[in-house]
From TrEMBL, chain A:
A Pfam family: BPD_transp_1
Primary residence: membrane
Any one biological process term the GO annotation gives: amino acid transport
Residue stretches spanning the membrane: 7-27, 69-87, 108-127, 261-281
Keyword line: Amino-acid transport, Cell membrane, Membrane, Transmembrane, Transmembrane helix, Transport
Protein topology in the membrane: Multi-pass membrane protein
Entry's family note: Belongs to the binding-protein-dependent transport system permease family. HisMQ subfamily.
Gene Ontology molecular function: any one: transmembrane transporter activity
Protein name: Amino acid ABC transporter membrane protein 2, PAAT family
InterPro entries (UniProt xref): AA_ABC_transptr_permease_3TM, ArtM/GltK/GlnP/TcyL/YhdX-like, MetI-like, MetI-like_sf
TrEMBL record, chain B:
PROSITE patterns: ABC_TRANSPORTER_1, ABC_TRANSPORTER_2
GO molecular function (one): ATP hydrolysis activity
Protein name: Amino acid ABC transporter ATP-binding protein, PAAT family
UniProt record similarity statement: Belongs to the ABC transporter superfamily.
Top-rank lineage group of the source organism: Bacteria
């Protein structure tokens, strides 16, 4: 690969290196910033001196929470999104308009605003109504809650996790819905006509003929949407869900390691998202 | 006032696509067990007409009765009707995500409520009938066009239909595959099935048709038995059309 580089390429690289060198110099010189990279590993995996064992510290906890939330939210988003996609293709005008309205509202309001609105108007009320708080605290106090902790993290925080997942899923469902709709509409009309002409109802036609073909087609864009969701999950730190971004804010506040903490967090997101995108690309090539 | 010997009765059908007048005052009767072949230039409304017969298109005015059931948009019995009326499409429209066997069993299982064993037994009978029992576990994309169309015919037959509609069943096929499909259709005609076939295969028409219909610009121009139709058609336009497709 290096052989392909010509002298203009080297020039560009040299200019870039110079630019970053200057930024570096400014930070070092004017900010008088003291780098403490050596402390970062202990915030990922800490050593508990009393119990003499390693434990997942603040950053790793955050990463685990982000992964949990992303998985649950994408499952929910897939369900909501599929319903939304089907609704967008409905023959009933009211259903179609409701789905369209939901979608356009979500697409034309900034994500942060959407998150706050969903949080205060929806998930908060839901959590109160279901009395999730008491239920979760009960489990947190119980003895054998290992499975629960593995699945949902610290149970005391369970209600906040639930609202985070709901908010994120509702937000992403709009995009999943559009993907599913495109998939449904890509199925040739002849397929629906053939289904109808052997006497299938509209629902059966969707369930047995259109959806299975559509879902197969939309796996690649859905996989990309899943990666987007992981990145978007940082937004819910605003409603105090204790995921990676929130934990980083905490860490920065207490330790003042602004650059180290944020760079580490960025690296975490990058590694997760980039390896997933490579993995999906490989799986897709295999499928062909 | 349904007559027992009448399978399809259309009275004064009109059909519009926006401003386009696709069917103009079409009246026609298909008897039980009758084989009708419809031909005519493209855009003459042949396909539209037979697609009205199982409610894939809705006529805008007039009256249409199929097997004693009145067909109109929103008719509650339309699904019952479609189980009786099979349709074979130009583009086959097999379900690509299902195997041949599953293509044949999904209708009987989901619509008629048969068990898998029952449905598979029926399916294998009809696969034999269309001469491809060995392809049961392949996917449609693995078959030739002629084989796919024969599977499509079997799929309709599996619903135990009483009427079969064919919408240019051989037009999308390579020439060497046309006969294998036509042979199956000729055999099917021998079972006493009511058939309405839109096609330009005049050899087939001569062999099986009881009635020939010629359509042009949304109207039925000529209805006659094949003898008269091929030797002495009453309309000039029909004579011209036949000359064009027969003389070469």
């Amino acid at each position: 690969m290096l052989k392909k580089l010509r002298w203009p390429d080297y020039l560009i690289l040299a200019v870039l290196a110079g630019f970053f060198g200057y930024v570096w110099y400014t930070i070092e010189g004017t900010l008088n910033y003291k780098w403490r990279w050596e402390l970062i590993p202990s915030y990922i995996v800490g050593w508990h001196s009393g119990r003499e064992e390693y434990f997942a510290n603040i950053l790793l906890q955050g990463l685990a929470a982000t992964i949990r939330i992303s998985i649950y939210a994408s499952i929910l988003a897939l369900i909501f999104g599929t319903v939304l996609g089907i609704a967008r293709c409905s023959t009933n005008l009211t259903v179609r308009m409701l789905a369209r309205t939901y979608l356009e509202c979500l697409r034309n309001v900034p994500p942060v605003v959407v998150v706050f609105i969903f949080f205060f108007f929806l998930s908060q009320q839901l959590i109160d109504a279901l009395n999730l708080d008491r239920w979760a605290r009960g489990i947190a106090r119980a003895e054998n809650n290992g499975v629960w902790e593995f699945l949902f993290g610290e149970m005391r925080r369970f209600p906040s996790l639930v609202s985070g997942v709901i908010v994120l899923a509702l937000f992403e469902s709009a995009f999943v819905g559009e993907i599913v709709r495109a998939g449904i509409q890509s199925i040739p009309r002849g397929q629906r006509e053939a289904a109808r002409s052997i006497g299938m109802s509209r629902w059966q036609e969707m369930r047995y003929i259109v959806l299975p073909q559509a879902m197969k087609k939309v796996v690649p864009p859905l996989a990309n949407q899943f990666i987007s969701l992981i990145k978007d999950s940082s937004i819910i730190s605003l409603i105090s869900v204790q995921e990676l971004t929130y934990k980083t804010v905490e860490l920065v506040a207490s330790s003042r390691m602004i650059f180290e903490a944020w760079i580490t967090t960025a690296a975490f997101y990058f590694v997760v998202c980039f390896s997933l995108s490579r993995l999906f690309a490989r799986l897709e090539r295999k499928r062909r | 006032m349904t007559r027992p010997d009448v399978m399809i009765e259309a009275q004064n059908l009109d059909k519009f696509y926006g401003p386009f007048h696709a069917l103009k005052d079409v009246s026609i009767t298909v008897g039980r067990g009758e084989k009708m072949v419809i031909c005519g230039p493209s855009g003459s409304g042949k396909s539209t007409l037979i697609r009205c017969f199982n409610g894939l298109e809705w006529h805008n005015s007039g009256r249409l009765t199929v097997d004693g059931i009145e067909v109109f948009e929103g008719a509650a019995e339309i699904r019952t009707l479609r189980q009786e009326v099979g349709m074979v499409f130009q583009q086959f429209n097999l379900f690509p995500h299902l195997t041949v066997l599953e293509n044949l069993t999904i209708g009987p299982m989901k619509v008629r409520g048969l068990t898998r064993a029952q449905a598979e037994e029926t399916a294998r009978t009809y696969l034999d009938r269309v001469h491809i029992p060995e392809q049961a576990n392949k996917y449609p994309a693995q078959l030739s066009g002629g084989q796919q169309q024969r599977v499509a015919i079997a799929r309709s037959l599996c619903m135990e239909t009483r009427v079969m509609l064919f919408d240019e069943p051989t037009s999308a096929l390579d020439p060497e595959m046309i006969n294998e499909v036509l042979d199956v259709m000729v055999e099917l005609a021998g079972t006493g099935m009511t058939m309405v076939v839109v096609t330009h295969e005049m050899g087939f028409a001569r062999k099986v048709a009881d009635t020939m219909v010629f359509m042009e610009a949304g109207r039925i121009v000529e209805v006659s038995p094949p003898d008269t139709f091929f030797t002495n058609p009453s309309s000039e336009r029909c004579r011209l059309f036949l000359d064009q497709i027969l003389d070469h």
